[in-house]
Amino acid sequence: MRPRAALAATDLGFAAFTERNRPRYTRYAQARLAQAAHVTGAVKATLVYAQEDWYWLLGQPSLAADVWEELRYQVRALSGTVSARDADVNRLYDGLPENSADSVLLCHRLGLAVSEAAELMGLEIPTVQAGLAVAHRALPYLAKRGRT
């Protein structure tokens, strides 16, 4: 059993994690999913996963990467039959590896800095930059689109 002070600190850590990431997770899910109920469901399921496995996640090399992968899973599961509202977003995910598509979506469509996108996905900055470079070569029109 964990001491009460440790539990309180962990609860505060999870609360801070949720407060920082819920809006960004929601924006990502909104860009990928057509239905508001699916957006809410994907983000909620992701945060429930994080809360239930918080102690385990704290011991992992990248808590952010593990939770990001869960968000991706939830979005994929809910987008199976319904496409995103924006056809260009669908084209990104149809034509690129997932990290590249996420990098474009976060940086070019949602306006996050490369460093913020990397932190959110639990990746190193050069990995996000490489994903953007792949996208610029493979789908230059979509990869250079302005922010929305």
Protein structure class = mainly alpha
* Count of β-strands: 0
In percent terms, what proportion of residues is strand? under 5%
**Strand/helix succession:** HHHHHHHHH
Average predicted confidence as pLDDT: 90
Percent of residues in helices:
over 70%
**Distance between the ends:** 47 Å
Description of the structure:
The protein has 148 residues and is an all-alpha fold. The mean pLDDT is 90. It has nine helices and no strands. The longest helix is centred in the N-terminal third of the chain and has 29 residues, at 4-32. Helix content is 78%, strand content 0%. It has helices spanning 4-32, 36-52, 54-58, 63-79, 87-95, 98-109, 114-121, 125-138, 140-143.
Helices and strands in order, then pairings?
Layout: H1 4-32, H2 36-52, H3 54-58, H4 63-79, H5 87-95, H6 98-109, H7 114-121, H8 125-138, H9 140-143
Task: Compose a concise summary of this entry.
This protein has 148 residues and is mainly α. Helices cover 78% and strands 0% of the residues.
Keywords:
148 residues, mainly alpha, 9 helices, 0% strand
